[in-house]
Each structure stands twice: as C-alpha cells, then as structure tokens.
Design brief:
Length: 440
C-alpha cells in the first residue's frame, strides 16, 4: 500500500505554488476496487472515510486562497504521517479527502479510525505564521456486504457525509442511516410539520432532574413530541433534523419555549425550573434574543429557565455562541452544555464560557458499568467542571448501579429512566406528588 506522496495516480491541479495535488475520484474508486479485490477471499473489510473541512469557503474568503490551499496540504501531510502506513490518504479536492482503510476486522475499527482522524486534524495547524484549528465532517462506509463494489462503497460514503451535514453530526457511517429516512419522505414530512406548527400540534414532555445530595427534583427538561396524522409518532431527533433542514427550527423552538412558559404558569405552586433545548440555527438567529428579552410577558421568573445547547453545536461557531451566551446570561437565564464529551471543546473555551451546567453525555454514563475508562472520564469531567464552578449532570441513568456510580464519580444531578421517563405535564405533577424524589 502506498501513501499519497508516492502515489501513481496523482495529477497536478492549478494550485499555485502550494504544491497541493488532487486525485480524480475515478482513481480513488480504482484504488478501492483493488483493496476489495485483495480482500475478496477473506473476512477482512475495506473502509472508505470521506473527510471534509468545515467552512472551507469561509476560510478561503477570510484568509485567501494560498492560506486555504496550504492548510489543505498540511492536513493531508499530517494524516499521512500519523495514520498507519497501510492507510491511504487521497485529496479529492481542496476541502475533501478520502482515507482508505485496507483491512478492517470489525466495524469498531472503523469507528476508532474516524475518532483518530478527528483527533489528528483537530490539533492546531501552523499556517503561514498563524495558528489555525480545523473542524471536519466525516462520512464513511465499509464493505460489510461482500457483494458491494467500489463505486457503491464510495456512494455510501458520500451519502453518509451528506447525512452527517443534514443532521449536524460530526460523523456518520452508512449503517447508521436508518430506513426511516425512506419511510418518511422528507418533503411530505416537512409539509406536515409546517402544518403541525401552524396548528399547535407540537407538544412537550418533561423529564425530572434530581439532585443527588438531597434527592430533590431541581428541574425538568422539556423534550419535543409530535404524532403526525400521516406518519404517526415521529422520533424527536427526526423532528428536529426536519425542522433544521427546512428552516422551521426557529418556529419550533419558539413553540417549545412558549409551551415551557405556559406550563410553568399552569403548574402554579408545583412549578419547577424548566430546561429547553436549542439548536445551532436558533443561536445564530437574532429573533431568539428578541423572543427571550420580552420577559415581562413571561409569567415565569427568568432564573427558572435553562437553555441547553450541545457541545457540538457550540463548537460549530464558538465565538458567535460565546457572544450569544454572554447576552443570555446577562438576562439571568441559565445555560447548560449538553452531550458533553461528544464534541471537541478546547479548555480555552471552557475556561471562559458563561455556563452554569455541564451534562455528561449518556454514552459515557451508560458505559460506566462496563468500562473503567468511562468511569474515569465521568470522574474527570465532574472534577474539572466543579473546578470551574459548574453543576454536573449525568444523563441517561437507567439503573441503580449507574446511579451509585454517578454519585461516586461526583456528579451533582442525575436524569434518566431510572428516576423517570419524560412525562406529559399532568402526569408529571401527579408523579411529583406521589414520588419520594420530590421534596420541595
Ligand atoms: P437530549 O437533549 O440529549 O435529550 C435527552 C434524550 O435522552 C431524550 O430523548 C430522552 O428521552 C432520552 N433519555 C432520557 N433518559 C434516558 C435514559 O435513561 N436512557 C435512554 N436510553 N434515554 C434517555 P428524546 O426525547 O428522544 O430526544 C432526543 C434529542 O432530540 C434530544 O437529546 C435533543 O437533542 C433533541 N430534542 C428534543 N426536544 C427538543 C427541542 O424541543 N428542541 C431541540 N432543539 N432539540 C430537541
Ligand atoms: Ca438536552
Ligand atoms: Ca443530552
């Protein structure tokens, strides 16, 4: 296996004197074909990983073409240097590369390779005397089905990359794209969601957050629910992805915020603080600030509202998010960083970010029972967060064992099916009264 620099199939492109060379897609497909052939009589699989530099046009527009092309060249060089020799890195364009993994034994190796690629490119690059950090989106496929040919493997990687972009995921492997995508034709779903929003069909359920020290319910998280008359129950992440792709997300967020405010009032003396999830698009929309600054009409104290935003969404545009967070915080609204551990926050941001809470991603919490390393991650994040004066929530607690592990790891608050599933507002009030967790 040869690496790019030795490759036969590179053709020069007009990239000035940066020395950057791209490889035609056809040539990349030939390489994949050769790898598939070599593995034909084995159980080994070929992995195709498409890596795209995020916001490349913006980088080029801000820093110029030479800078952008030099950056691309450095990314390829570093990948070539740090990935094993048998791995091939081919630049398909200035912002897109394909990494070919020749002999995967199990699928997990593909996941590990993707994580490694993300780590490698995330380290600072030194480009023309300045430091620069690169974020990438990854789409990948692998030849789990032996009958699949090279063009199809490439197509699957392309469609995973598209799916990752559409769903705002940092990465996607083709077998993660559920068939639901076909069951729910996007356009029809979008039209029905638009109608549902107009007719106030979108509802919220609420899941309690419990403080470990006191056993008290310290708040609830609001989660969107929708049963479409055409499609039936639509999964929340699909609702959100559809809303994001079709420009309906602001509308949906304002409805969920409204639902939360109304619910708080309806609960009266039973009212508990409510956390609402925000998507990236909404953070960038000035209408959000206008909406939440009209707090005089709220009927809900500002300090009873928390806004949750995922670490990945934050890191998409950290400077902008920082600006908006500061404004929101100044109004007295709390901020929580959701799914912590799945994005790539730098300590520099963590040090300065005006948040009050970190929610450790369910994946780590759930795995604490099985993996010492996950326990260590949760402990370390909890300690770090505490050092910064932040409240630490462990989400996705499903059993008593994990509950105790979260306690031992130093988490302050827990949320998960072990305490309660998300519930409609009336049931939640009954639950609060019935349940020993609730000690106002
Ligand atoms: P999230 O913000 O991480 O919300 C927590 C998800 O974990 C919820 O899924 C919740 O039902 C689920 N969950 C809670 N406890 C457990 C547990 O013990 N085990 C397991 N397996 N799952 C648990 P849900 O309701 O399906 O929501 C999925 C995602 O959709 C949310 O993840 C959030 O990112 C998004 N979402 C939901 N509602 C909204 C909304 O109103 N606005 C926005 N922007 N996003 C929302
Ligand atoms: Ca959340
Ligand atoms: Ca979460």
């Amino acid at each position: 296996m040869t690496s790019t620099s030795e490759s036969r199939a590179v053709s020069p492109c007009d990239c000035g004197d940066t020395g950057f060379r791209t490889v035609p897609r056809d040539d990349a497909i030939c390489r994949i074909e050769a790898l598939l052939k070599a593995n034909r009589d084995t159980t080994l699989m070929v992995g195709v990983v498409l890596v795209e530099i995020n916001q490349y046009q913006r980088i080029r527009a801000s820093y110029g073409y030479r800078f952008a092309a030099t950056l691309s060249k450095l990314v390829v060089e570093r990948l070539n240097k740090e990935l094993p020799a048998k791995v091939t890195v081919l630049p398909l364009g200035l912002s897109e590369f394909v990494v070919l993994l020749p002999d995967l034994k199990i699928r997990q190796q593909l996941g590990l390779a993707i994580n490694k690629i993300q780590r490698i490119v995330f380290e600072l690059f030194s480009v023309m005397d300045s430091s620069f950090r690169v974020n990438v989106t990854i789409g990948a496929s692998y030849s789990v089905d032996k009958s699949v040919d090279a063009p199809e493997l490439m197509r699957l990687a392309d469609s995973s990359l598209l799916h990752a972009h559409d769903s705002r995921l940092p990465q996607c492997i083709h077998d993660e794209i559920s068939d639901e995508q076909d069951e729910f034709p996007f356009l029809e779903l979008q039209l029905d969601l638009e109608r549902a929003l107009e007719q106030n069909e979108i509802t919220s359920v609420f899941q309690p957050k419990v403080e470990m020290r006191t056993g008290r319910v310290v708040g609830v998280e609001s989660l969107v629910r929708w049963t479409s008359p055409i499609f039936g129950v639509v999964r929340p992440d699909l609702i959100i992805a559809t809303a994001e792709r079709s420009g309906l997300i602001n509308n949906l967020t304002f409805q969920t915020l409204n639902n939360a405010i109304l619910q708080y009032q309806r609960w009266g003396k039973d009212a508990v603080p409510i956390a609402v999830n925000l998507s990236t698009e909404v953070i960038n929309d000035p209408a959000l600030m206008r909406f939440i600054s009209r707090r005089n009409i709220w009927g809900m104290p500002v300090e009873a509202l928390t806004l949750e935003i995922t670490e990945t969404a934050f890191m998409e545009n950290p400077d902008k998010a920082m600006e908006v967070f500061t404004e929101i915080n100044a109004m007295g609204i709390k901020l929580s960083m959701d799914d912590f551990g799945t994005g790539y926050s730098s300590f520099e941001y963590l040090k300065n970010i005006p948040i009050q809470e970190i929610k450790i991603d369910r994946a780590f919490v759930d795995n604490m029972r099985h993996e010492r390393k996950d326990r260590l991650i949760v402990e370390t994040v909890a300690e770090l967060a505490k050092g910064f004066g932040l409240r630490v929530i462990a989400e996705g607690i499903e059993d008593v064992e994990t509950y105790h592990l979260a306690m031992d790891a130093g988490c302050d608050v827990v949320q998960g099916y072990f305490i309660s599933r998300p519930q409609p507002p009336d049931e939640l009030v009954e639950w609060l009264h019935r349940n020993e967790w609730y000690r106002p």
